[in-house]
TrEMBL record:
It comes from Extensimonas vulgaris. Keywords: Hydrolase. PANTHER family: PHOSPHOGLYCERATE MUTASE-RELATED, SERINE_THREONINE-PROTEIN PHOSPHATASE PGAM5, MITOCHONDRIAL. InterPro entries: His_Pase_superF_clade-1, His_PPase_superfam, Mito_Ser/Thr_phosphatase. The lineage of its organism: Bacteria, Pseudomonadati, Pseudomonadota, Betaproteobacteria, Burkholderiales. GO terms for molecular function: hydrolase activity. This is Broad specificity phosphatase PhoE. Coiled coil: none annotated.
Length: 223
C-alpha cells in the first residue's frame, strides 16, 4: 500500500503586498523537510503541485533537502482559494494591514465567515470558482492518485485550503469542520493518506516530524 504525502507550503509573506513568496524561514522549513525524508530513505514515484510560486518554491526546497531533481505535474486544481476575494465579498470596505495580533485575528475571523458563506453558496467571490467546483477539482486529484498510484509514494505540495478539502473529502466532514482544519494546518506540515485501489485513508494530519528538535521549535508557523 502506498502513501500520499500532502505538504502545505512553507511560511509565505503574510501581510506583504505579494503573499505568494516564501520567506527565508519558509525556505528553511521546506529544505529541512526534504533533509528529514532523505535521512529516512524516502523516495517518491510521482510529485504533484499547484502552480503558485509558493508551491514551486516549497518543492524546490524539499528537493534540495532530498537531493533530487523533481519533475512535478502541476495542477491548477491544487491552488489556494483567493482569500482577499473572499473577504471582499463580505466586507467590501478597505481593511488595515493585519500587522498586529488583534488585526491578525480579525482577518481570520472574516476569512472563516467568508469561507462558510462561500461553501454554503450565499456569496460568489469575484474571479473564483464556486465551492462545488473547487472541491470537485481536489476530489478529481484524489481520484487520480487512487486510480493511478496505488502502492506508490506520491508527494503533493499545495496550500491549506486544498489540503483541508482533501481531508474533508476522505472523512466526509461538515463544512465548519473543514474550515477549522484549514485554520490549523501549519507551514510545511505533512498530512498522510494511505493509497489503495479502493480508497484513500487518513493516516496522519498536520504533523511536523522534521521540526521536532528543540533547535527548530521557533520554526513552527501558521501563515
Amino acid at each position: 500500500m502506498g502513501t500520499l504525502y500532502l505538504v502545505r507550503h512553507g511560511q509565505a509573506s503574510f501581510g506583504a503586498h505579494d503573499y505568494d513568496q516564501l520567506s527565508a524561514l519558509g525556505q528553511r522549513q521546506a529544505e529541512r523537510l526534504g533533509a528529514h525524508w532523505r535521512a529516512r530513505g524516502l523516495q517518491f514515484d510521482t510529485i504533484l503541485t499547484g502552480t503558485l510560486r509558493r508551491h514551486r518554491q516549497t518543492l524546490a526546497g524539499i528537493a534540495a533537502g532530498l537531493q533530487i531533481a523533481p519533475q512535478p505535474i502541476e495542477l491548477p486544481s491544487l491552488n489556494e482559494y483567493d482569500s482577499q476575494a473572499l473577504i471582499h465579498a463580505i466586507h467590501p470596505e478597505p481593511l488595515p494591514r493585519p500587522d498586529t495580533p488583534q488585526l491578525y485575528r480579525a482577518h481570520f475571523r472574516l476569512l472563516c465567515d467568508a469561507l462558510a458563506q462561500w461553501m454554503a453558496g450565499t456569496i460568489s467571490p469575484a474571479g473564483m470558482p464556486s465551492w462545488p467546483e473547487f472541491a470537485g477539482g481536489v476530489r478529481a486529484v484524489l481520484e487520480q492518485v487512487r486510480s493511478q498510484h496505488a502502492g506508490k509514494n506520491v508527494l503533493l505540495v499545495s496550500s491549506g485550503g486544498p489540503i483541508s478539502t482533501a481531508v474533508g473529502e476522505v472523512l466526509g466532514t461538515a463544512p465548519e469542520v473543514t474550515i477549522a482544519l484549514n485554520m490549523r494546518i501549519r507551514n510545511s506540515a505533512v498530512t498522510e493518506f494511505s493509497i489503495s485501489r479502493k480508497r484513500l485513508m487518513l493516516q496522519t494530519f498536520n504533523t511536523l516530524p522534521h521540526l521536532h528538535e528543540v533547535e527548530h521549535a521557533d520554526w513552527i508557523t501558521f501563515a
